[in-house]
Amino acid sequence: MKWSINQLQKFRDKGLELNETMDLEEELKKIDSQIRGATPVHVTGRADIGSSRVTFHLKVEGALTLPCSRTLKDVHYPYHIESKETFLLNSNGYDSEEESDEVHQLDGDVLNLTPVLLELIVLEIPMQVYSEEAKNEDDFHPSGQGWEFISENQKKEKIDPRLAELSKLLQTEKDQD
Questions:
Q1: Strands 147-148 and 143-144, how do they pair?
Q2: Cβ–Cβ < 8 Å for 112, 97
Q3: How many angstroms separate the CA atoms of 7 and 53, rounded?
Q4: Dihedral angle computed from the Cα positions of residues 109, 114, 119 and 121, in that order, rounded to the nearest 10 degrees
Q5: Is 44 exposed, middle or buried (0-12, 13-18, 19+ CB in 10 A)?
Q6: Rounded Cα–Cα distance for residues 22 and 36 (Å)
Q7: How far, in Å, CA of 122 to CA of 115, rounded?
């Protein structure tokens, strides 16, 4: 999604409506190696165009395929992002007190929205994603050679074999009280 400043100025009075679908899968995979796949990104919204700035009101929708944090199986992760992005056409339009949102500077005479969309999507990725299988299995606990996962409930019930005799002694004292 690229426009030259001259193209944007043609829409100055009426604004610019956005409704596009873009394939950003390869770019997303290059940015974050955990992304295993991505559906085409659907971008809707509008652009308010002034003499010194362009403000995009965006809705970005799509889905990513990410690894489950427990099982490493593929997880379909849909996202819906709403954002307001402002691009300065020249440096005269910047008022730091007025602006609370991020402001982007143009690189040359072309406004390229794609890097901003990539950044918004990557920032939407959660730290951990769980598959339905991992969410539904309360008893699912990974283990390996010489280790196992112990939940808080199991921790209280399981007694270290080295302390079993002491535990019996403490239990006897509680029963006498």
A1: antiparallel
A2: no
A3: 14
A4: 160
A5: middle
A6: 17
A7: 11
Higher pLDDT, 134 or 4: 4
Residue 64 half-sphere exposure toward CB, CA atoms < 13 A: 24
Q: CB within 8 A of 68, min separation 6: which ones?
A: 74, 75, 129, 130, 131, 133, 134
pLDDT digits (tens, 9 = 90+) for 28-65: 899 988 999 999 999 999 988 888 888 889 999 999 99
- Count Cβ atoms below 10 Å from residue 56 Cβ, excluding itself: 23
Nearest CA among 62, 63, 57 for reference residue 18:
57
- Please state, in angstroms and rounded to a whole number, the distance separating the CA atoms of residues 64 and 109: 32
Give pLDDT, residue 158: 62
pLDDT level of residue 3 (50, 70, 90 thresholds): confident
What are the pLDDT digits (tens) for 131-168? Answer: 877 766 655 566 677 777 666 666 556 667 777 777 77
Beta bridge partners of 54: 49, 87
Instruction: Classify 43 as helix, strand or coil.
Output: strand
The one-character DSSP state at 163 is G
